[in-house]
Description:
- By secondary structure, the chain is an alpha+beta fold.
- The protein folds into 2 domains: 2-49, no CATH class; 57-96, no CATH class.
- The protein has 3 helices and 4 strands.
- It has helices at residues 2-34, 38-49, 83-96, and strands spanning 57-59, 66-68, 73-75, 78-80.
- It has a two-stranded antiparallel ribbon. The protein has a two-stranded antiparallel ribbon with strand order 3-4.
- The longest helix is centred in the first third of the chain and has 33 residues, at 2-34.
- 7% of the residues are buried.
- It binds zinc ion.
- The site of zinc ion (ZN) has 8 residues, from loops.
Amino acid sequence: MRQLLLLIVFVLAARWLVKLQRAGQARGNARADAGRGASSSARRARPRNTPSLAEPVERCAACGVHAPRSESVLVGQQYFCCAEHARPYTARAAGTR
Ligand SMILES: [Zn+2]
């Protein structure tokens, strides 16, 4: 029974230490960002900068290249990889209307 109590105390102490360590890390990262900060902040900022897989990919109606929706050009209902490929379609759409 005493051993069990000791174990519980040990677990609680370990949890408390982990919490303390995490708080210290957060504070340390904030300080690192303010100072040198390049390595740790860059590692954390990367997911924001690189296009995530969650972003929908659209197929260019002219050449068939797949491009992220944010980077593709939308004309009517069609997506294009670049403005150059969209131009003939916009001319055609404008002409028919
Ligand atoms: Zn294209």
